[in-house]
Amino acid sequence: MDGTADYDGIKFENGSFTKVSDPLTIEHPLEISINGKPFTVVMQTPGDEEDLTRGLLFAEDVIQAKTEIKCTAEKNEQNLITKINVDIPADQLGDGYLSARSLLSVSSCGICGKQSLEDLQIQKGDSLTNSKTKQTYSLAALFDMQEKMFQAQSLFQLTGGCHGVAAFSSTGELLAIKEDIGRHNAMDKVVGNLLKNNQQKQAKIILFSGRISYEIVSKAFRAKISIIMAVSAPSTLAIDFAKEYGIIILSFSRNGKSTCYANCQIIS
Fold it and tell me: In sequence order, what are the residues at sequence separation of 6 or more whose Cβ sits closer than 8 angstroms to the Cβ of residue 198?
């Protein structure tokens, strides 16, 4: 397992469409339990799960450098580790375990801190795009929206150190743009602004400055936004969820090029 999986897509470049198969980074949930009790879930790329677990528990003051622990792994049908149970003597558990919270959710990870894999489920509903979807979107129009977002990213222009998320209507009207050090925070700010201004139903497109993870797709589905266009790459789990929930994924969108990995039928 090298941490990647090949996914098929359609690359748009200079008015032509080319089928491609690209290696993408695997995003996979790992549940960490302590003494048989779920502690947290982290989204990670398969490999070195025990090292990840040990380092995370040390960072969160659950264990000390010399604490003796025993890790037991559970795998799924694809031979991926889905759970790590850590046996730690009760008298050696640090304050990080005794705290009321499970795990501090940092700005770069909206899913970290869930306690079990079941917590990752998002509410199902009708697919956002299907065979009855009539409206199509031109790549040229989407790139025009992206340029509007770039021009409106004042904090990034000043610092070069934050993410931007922008919501657009189907006609290309900029409804909201927010910036934040964390991708998920910027997305939440946009959705919150749409709700405050009663514009959620108008929002059909999200333009994104970073990569697309599972959490971004789940947030878009919750807001009923059917297109995510990003400058950077998607994860494998993001594409899997997008296919199921009818969300169009456009990645590597820069310099007039873009690759669609999910629900490409409404892009022209």
Answer: none
